[in-house]
What we know:
The chain is 35% helix and 15% strand. The chain is an alpha/beta fold. The protein has a 7-stranded mixed β-sheet with strand order 6-5-4-7-10-9-11, sandwiched between helices. Helix 14 packs antiparallel against helix 15 and helix 15 runs antiparallel to helix 17 (402-416).
Amino acid sequence: MLPPxxxxxxxxxxxxxxxxxxxxxRGRGHGKAVHTRHGAGLSxxxxxxxxxLLYRCKSVSYWSPYWRWPTDVCGVNCLIxxxxxxxxxxxxxxxxxxxxxxxxxxxxxxxxxxLKSALLFSKNPLHFYIFAETVxxxxxxxxxxxxxxxxxxxxxxxIFPITFPDDNEHEWKKLFKPCAxxxxxLPLLLQDVDSLLYVDTDILFLQPVEDIWxxxxxxxxxxxxxxxxxxxxxxxxxxxxxARHPYYxxxxxxxGVMLMNMTRIRAKYFKNDMTTVPLRWEEMLLPLLxxxxxxxxxxxxxxxxxxxxxxxESLFVFPCEWNYRPDHCIYGSNCHTADQRGVFILHGxxxxxxxxxxxxxxxxxxxxxxxxxxxDLVKTLLEPLExxxxxxxxxxxxxxxxxxxKRLKQSIVPAQQEVPRGR
Length: 423
């Protein structure tokens, strides 16, 4: 169960975003209410009066619907405030991109580096939904609020606690890596969010987020999620050689980058191998875990493979340059679209951003991590990165590292014209 409303103190929005400044202008005047921009989860209603800001919590989630909140928290207008109020305060749906990440354990710096990469090249505003252990909330807020003012005008953020159903909380938490299965519950927790891009913490954007966001418009009427194949080459595939459960297609799918139309996910009845009756998303997850928990290796990713094995018409498969991993180059290049077009999103799974096994991946991570907002993107990001990559050609991935910078160079040209200076 989510904590009581009055105790959720770590969920905040960036206090200096463009959207909020516009709201302040519209809400000028004594006693007028101002809504900060948000997508879902905790929204903060700021009411001016008596020289202070009063915060009213309106958190509504799948496990904590509005009717469960005490009347002194939400009052009689809670339903209107949490749904109609959200709609009234939103920008047009084609303006904002919505990005979610789940961070537990020592993932703070890695997550911040991912968020930085998203901001470096995106022109459209971003809303970040950060699900994190409570101990990390303050560090996330402090870090993002310390970024230069012109960067902070490009995004809003909401921080959520890690939340699982009460009855099976321990079982979900221990599945694969800590908190990893939280992504399965995003359609239920973010009820007011129509579409969402989920990424793992070990992701780096090498081109604008809105480019992958645009793939939503490529979905046909039955598709509700998009992911990349787990492998391009079946001879080195994991699922087709070792899986003890159903999986999607020939080599399975990787869930590290997952684009979702969550409205469709919430509405669909899914075919399954547990009953002849199609089940809703929330009805299917626990029975699926109970049936396959002794047969799955990669946790929630395996469950997604099982789901889309039985519902292949619901998945849009995007090519490997949108989720480029060491497996695409460790034995020689096998992501041919990345060879032609460059890497769009770099996925440093298996910890390769932090060890010496794949120095080309680590070089990209270090370059973005150490880049200071406001610096010259060519001189302080691209050129040092190219120098580092030249020392990695003794590895197969190092020999393919020109694909890492090919798209990056194209992203830097327009971004360089908008580099924010100062705070």
